[in-house]
Amino acid sequence: MQQAVITGTGVFTPEQTITNAELVESFNAYADRFNAENADAIAAGEVTAKDHSSVEFILKASGIEQRHVMDKAGVLDPARMYPRLRQRSDDEPGIMAEIALDACNQALKMAGRTGEDVDLVICAASNMERAYPAVAIEIQKLLGAGGFAFDMNVACSSATFGIQAAADMIRTGSVRRALVVSPEITSGHLEWRDRDCHFIFGDVATATLIERREDDTQGFLIRSSRCATEFSNNIRNNNGFLRRTRPDGVTDRRDMQFMQEGRKVFKEVMPMVAHHVLEHLSETDVSPQDLRRLWLHQANKTMNDFLGRKVLGRDPEPGEQPNILQDYANTSSAGSIIAFAKHSNDFTPGDLGLICSFGAGYSVGSVVVERI
Ligand code: CO8
């Protein structure tokens, strides 16, 4: 059996940012406009008035301070409230492939490889730009990679599930080098007009290069991984290709964007993740005290504080559980990979760490890595 090693990572970060203050100002202008336009219906009790959002609430409830987005102007326009992206012809790279390529090239450069060295591309993300051809195959072509490519979606856990799939194929010898890439344009499917969730997400793309271990391979050995799922409607998006077949097949309906029962998610997912991680560690003879760092899913600071305490059995020391969500918000599957990419350079051979993601499905993915 071969061994699989993470030899490179890449993070594409969109240039445009939206601070909480900018977001709240735009949301409140939208809410005032909505309330004025619907004044009669609101007075008659037929429509619910929109309350203002608040910077203080967002920071306290989530820890998020800003988010990166592909189009700030469209999101902040109170008459629009979603991104405006350029129409592209079928002969140009799609926007997901374009940002994925940037992240992949960073990962390849870090490992001293080129696209031609790669024989598997997995595009692992929460939503795909189109049904087919697979975005991954487009990325494969743009990279000049060989072998094969496919898309997979496990929402926030897409990247860790992708890493497990790629590592398993490397171990059995069916591929030699794989890129797991997560272009997450969450701004396209976030409901920016809903104050309960308008602050949650941001855009980014991450890539992880995984290679078969040779004598001189350096990086992070994938010691083990575990994936788990359990069906829940508490995080859901009903958009899809059967939409026009429904009697009420409208496009601008609340459930065509991201929806969640945030409190329920919090209460149900936390025990599931803590149990999953502790079982994974125990089955593979790794003590939580052996882990130098946890690179957790980046949805909510309180969630990460809770998990850090559950896994380590004590309050994490500074740097043991780095967050990036204050700068990026929740970037779905990319979050734990951004944390890993930005906070792993100080590892020395023998150091162990845990990458862990969780979210819609529900889904949980955990990967134990060792610096070699
Ligand atoms: N400003 C002011 N007040 C607000 C706001 C706001 N923006 N929003 C809500 N409030 C009010 C509420 O109305 C409520 O008022 P009241 O007490 O009078 O009823 C009060 O504040 C408290 O509201 P909540 O109970 O909702 O607040 P919480 O403390 O629970 O925090 C969170 C809300 C931050 C959403 C929290 O519940 C949370 O983080 N939950 C878990 C979220 C999570 O991790 N979800 C995972 C989803 S990600 C995923 O799986 C990927 C999906 C695919 C990607 C999709 C991309 C778009």
Report on the structure:
- With 372 residues, the chain is an alpha+beta fold.
- It has a domain at 222-371: 3-Layer(aba) Sandwich (Peroxisomal Thiolase, Chain A, domain 1), CATH 3.40.47.
- 33% of the residues lie in helices and 22% in strands.
- The protein contains 11 helices and 13 strands.
- It has helices spanning 20-37, 39-43, 55-62, 72-76, 95-111, 135-143, 158-172, 262-283, 301-312, 325-328, 335-342, and strands at residues 4-12, 16-19, 66-69, 120-124, 148-152, 177-184, 204-212, 220-229, 235-236, 259-260, 291-296, 352-359, 363-371.
- The strands form 3 sheets. The protein has a 9-stranded mixed β-sheet, with helices on both faces. Strands 2-3 form a two-stranded antiparallel ribbon.
- The mean pLDDT is 96.
- This is 3-oxoacyl-ACP synthase.
The unreliable regions are none
Tell me what the CATH architecture of the domain at 222-371 is. Answer: 3-Layer(aba) Sandwich
Order of helices and strands: EEHHHEHHEHEHEEEEEHEHHHEE
**Ions and ligands:** octanoyl-coenzyme A
What radius of gyration results from the CA coordinates? 21 Å
Query: What is the molecular shape?
Result: globular
